[in-house]
Structures are given as C-alpha cells and as structure tokens.
Inverse folding.
C-alpha cells in the first residue's frame, strides 16, 4: 500500500469524531517534529477540530505522562515508533505518523503509519513532516500549502529531495507556494557580519574580520549584494583560500534555496525551529509555524542566541588541541545540546581536528552525554559510529546508537576512562 492510501484510513478515523472534538497531538522536539505537529494541527483546525499540542523528548516514561489524560484521539507525529507496545495502555485510539525505525507489534488501538512500511527510505525520502503532509492531504486535498512546512521538516532532518519528499516539493512549486532560488550564502548581510557570524562555513580567527576585508580593499559595512562582480570574485577567492588553509574540501558559495509564500526562506525557518527546540522553547516554534508574528521575532532572538552559543564554543575550540586517541579525537563541552553540532563543525572546519579521525564530544553532568561525528570518507572506509556507540554503551551499561556518520551515547559518570578505551578498540575493528 502506498503512503497516500494508508493515511486515508487515519483521515477516516478523524472524520468519525464529531466536529469541535479536541484531538491530542504529540510531536518530537526537533525542527522536523515541530513542523510535523504544526502541519497536523493546522489540518485538523481546518477540518473543524480543536487540538492540544505537546512537544516531547524521547524519554522512557513518555506514555505514562499522557495515558491518564482524557483524549478521544491521540496523534503521535515524528515520535512514537519506540513506544508502540506501551500505547496499549492509552484508553482511546492512537494514530502514529512516523519515519523512525520502530517495533513490530502494533496494539489493536493503534494505527501505525510509518513511511518505512510503504516503500520509502525513512532516512532520506520521507521525514515526520512528510508523513504529516500526506495525512493533511488525506484530510483535505487543498492542504497543498502545508508543503512549505513539510519542506522545513525535510531540511531540519537533513533529508534528500527524493522519494515522497520530491513529490512534496513538486506539489509546492506546482501550486506556486514554494519557489526555488539559487543564491549566494551571504545575501542580505553586511560583509563584516557575514564573515564573523557565519557558522557553515565557519571561519577561524574572524573574531574581528575588518583587517581581512581591508586587506582586500573591501568596506566591512558593505552589503554582499552591493559588491561589483570583480569585488565579489576577490572576496570569494580569498575566502576559498582561507577555507582550503583550514583543511575544508567542500566549499560552496551558492546554494539552492527554497522560499515559501507564507514563511520566506525555508532553510531559515528550519534553523529557527531547531534553535527553539534546542533552547527548550518548542512552543515558540509551533506558534511560528501557525503564523504568529510575535513568535517570528521571538524565534529570531532564540536563533541568534543559539548561534551565539555555538560561535562562542567554536572560538574556544579553535584555541586548543583536541585530545587524541589512536582512532578518534575528543573534547569536552559544557552544554550537552551543543555537543553534536560542535563535533560536526570542529571536524569540518577546524585545522587541529583534521586528522582523518572521527570527533567525539563529551559532556559531563550527572551522567556523561556523548556525541560523535565522522565524515563521508570515513564512512566509506568502514567507520560506523552508530554501531560503535551502541556496542560500547551496552558493554558499560549505558545506551547508545545512531547512524554511521553521526551517533550518540549516554553512560554513567564513572565510566569515562573505560568508555574512551573501549571506543578506541571498537573503532579499530
Ligand atoms: Mn524526524
């Protein structure tokens, strides 16, 4: 059965409820999860239903928290695959709209719709927001405008515009609600700000970029689009050389970008939702998706705050050598939510982390949170961080897992040394 058919059964279940009924929505705390929950909420509201959204972390007692609420229907979106069994304890009907790998046994009160069960690669071709969009279209064909939020989810989960995601993009472009533009990554910014604030790419040593710009005879306060063609070339070739010196090998100054009629730059919305999720302000992200102007301003501030935190940590990381094991590099970070993104950025942009080894970030609090990142070349050579983290964490009584290129683990505080040694062994295999 195709995904589009499966979601029709979910729509029928909704339509079996009287109008004005309140439907519970549970989403996952990341950009895709927020976009997904908003798509479901908007579609339900348009169909005449009320809704109540909560955005949740994947904690062990998730179902405990909601099973005693009085709900006529609960819709889990971008979350739920790992709680199917426990959902039996919910007294009413449950719909799960998912793309993560999940359990096999589905209780009789649960309608489990997972992109992976309908011939799609849930890691690349359909995310939570894609499945939510399919569901929204099943509720009403006219919900094509929600393709904008679906694409935000696709971007947030770093998926491809392939499979069902490609269809969504075509829907949006065909309907005139999404527009494709190829533009320079610095568009809209003053040169000084563009270079100092840039995270992808990250430029080392640009706490103050004025001397660099002046050495190129460029005025720091000029906007990128005000440059003549010759000036633009001068700037971009100097920056290319700088990144090559940093050891970066994939350098792109132009990017294919998608703009939504109601939301503007969809990459920017995904970045805002991500910041909201990371800073525990998912509610602001939901309001942003629902079109609240004030939420847009708030999310802008959260985005700035999040980016400031990342840059601050990166400026520190630039200064010191990482610790080195035989098969990986590691460093410590105070803020667990930043560990993954910092490990990734360090691996790509910091010369001292360019040793052809995966980068691991450890965050020590009551327990130790670990994030690890590799690059595509390492994965091709056989590195699988997801497997390694899972095996090592299990051995030490913790939990771990993820993808070959990006993975995480959580272990007890006193197991640090053991973890480092075991991971070194595991990655030598
Ligand atoms: Mn997702």
């Amino acid at each position: 059965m195709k995904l589009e058919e499966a979601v029709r059964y979910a729509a029928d279940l909704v339509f079996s409820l009287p109008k004005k009924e309140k439907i519970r929505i549970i989403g996952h705390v990341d950009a895709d999860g927020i976009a997904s929950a908003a798509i479901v909420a908007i579609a339900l509201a348009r169909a005449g239903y009320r809704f109540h959204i909560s955005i949740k972390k994947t904690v062990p007692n998730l179902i405990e928290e909601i099973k005693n609420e009085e709900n006529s229907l609960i819709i889990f979106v971008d979350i739920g695959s790992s709680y199917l069994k426990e959902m039996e304890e919910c007294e009413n009907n449950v719909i799960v709209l998912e793309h993560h790998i999940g359990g096999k046994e589905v209780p009789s009160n649960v309608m489990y719709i997972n992109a992976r069960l309908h011939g799609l690669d849930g890691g690349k071709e359909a995310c939570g927001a894609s499945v939510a969009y399919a569901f929204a279209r099943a509720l009403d064909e006219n919900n094509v405008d929600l393709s904008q939020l679906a694409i935000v989810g696709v971007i947030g989960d770093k998926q491809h515009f392939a499979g069902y995601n490609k269809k969504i993009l075509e829907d949006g472009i065909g309907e005139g609600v999404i527009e494709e533009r190829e533009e320079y990554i610095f568009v809209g910014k003053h040169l000084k700000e563009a270079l100092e604030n840039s995270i992808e790419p990250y430029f080392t040593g640009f706490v103050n970029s004025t001397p660099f710009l002046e050495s190129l005879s460029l005025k720091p306060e000029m906007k990128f689009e005000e440059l003549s063609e010759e000036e633009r070339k001068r700037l971009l070739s100097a920056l290319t050389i700088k990144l090559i010196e940093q050891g970066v090998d994939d350098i792109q100054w132009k990017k294919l970008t998608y703009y939504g009629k109601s939301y503007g730059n969809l990459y920017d919305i995904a970045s805002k939702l991500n910041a909201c999720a990371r800073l525990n302000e998912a509610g602001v992200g939901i309001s942003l998706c629902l079109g609240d102007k004030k939420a847009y301003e708030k999310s802008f501030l959260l985005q700035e705050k999040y980016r400031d935190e990342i840059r601050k940590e990166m400026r520190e990381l630039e200064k010191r050598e990482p610790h080195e094991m035989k098969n990986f590099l590691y460093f410590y970070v105070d803020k667990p939510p930043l560990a993954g993104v910092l490990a990734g950025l360090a691996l790509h942009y910091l010369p001292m982390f360019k040793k052809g080894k995966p980068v691991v970030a450890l965050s020590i609090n009551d327990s130790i949170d670990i994030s690890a990142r590799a690059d595509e070349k390492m994965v091709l050579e056989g590195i699988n961080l997801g497997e390694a983290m899972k095996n090592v964490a299990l051995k030490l009584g913790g939990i771990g897992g993820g993808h070959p290129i990006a993975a995480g683990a959580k272990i007890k505080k006193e197991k640090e040394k053991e973890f480092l040694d075991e991971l070194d062994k595991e990655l030598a295999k």
About this structure: The chain has 16 helices and 14 strands. The chain has three domains: 3-177, 186-251, 320-428. Residues 387 and 401 are 6 Å apart (CA to CA).
